[in-house]
Specification:
The complex is a heterodimer of chains A (about 80) and B (about 150). Chain A is of the alpha/beta class. Chain A has one domain (about 1-80). Chain A has helices spanning about 1-10, 20-25, 50-65, and strands spanning about 15, 30-35, 70-80. Chain A has a 3-stranded parallel β-sheet with strand order 1-2-3, sandwiched between helices. The termini of chain A are far apart. Chain B is an alpha/beta fold and about 150 residues long. Chain B is built from 3 helices and 7 strands; from the N terminus they run E-E-E-E-H-H-E-E-H-E. In chain B, strands 1, 3, 5, 6 and 7 form a 5-stranded mixed β-sheet that branches. A two-stranded antiparallel sheet of chain B has the order 2-4. The chains are: A alpha/beta (about 80), B alpha/beta (about 150). Strand 1 of chain A pairs parallel with strand 7 of chain B, so a sheet runs across the interface.
Amino acid sequence: MIVQRAIESVGIPTIIIAALPPVVRQQGTPRAVAPRVPMGANAGEPNNVEMQTGILKDTLLQFEKLDQPGKIVPLPYEYIAQI
Amino acid sequence: MSLKKIDGLQSEVFVPITPKPVWAPVTKPLKDMTVAIVTAAGVHLKKDKPFNLAGDTTYRVVPGDAKTSDMMVSHGGYDNTDVNRDINCMFPIDRLRELAKAGFIKAVAPKMYTCMGGGGNVKVFTEKTGPEIAQKLLQEHVDAVVMTAG
């Protein structure tokens, strides 16, 4: 994503929570995580505080783990939208 | 045998090019970080101008202490049903505030920046919108940014 790269290039580390990992890979993301979620609920199921907290925490933890650009880390959370 | 070289000849097949890597190293532990959320999910305050669903390169500011009940989404590129139920599923601001309170991170940044992805003028995003948001985050001493998009 363009804005992510712009922020990263001024020296601020970024990480994206992606529902479409191939797209962010193509766009040259520096850091990404990919829970199993549909577009529109990237940060977890609506009103599921436990899942949202887990996704956000695991996303933030990657700041201390990832050591090279371009990795997309799968996260063990699944939400299938009933819409 | 040398291949014939024709200046300016291009393949008719569009080949998407992944841009060169960008990388800002992490310099402090999470518990010392001020974190912002930047999203392309079309989140904005209800009192602000909605995004143009046909493509919009402008951005909005959401204060770090804004109530989720004062926020809404204008985005024509994904099903808004879930995000209308709970904005945290695209913009986990309540979760970030809870993590700051618990000491997992140091603080929530004063301002979040939001835009509408999935359309709009790529050149403007690259040359204007992206760099402007980046400069503001620098001025506000943000240590790390969590994004939702894609």
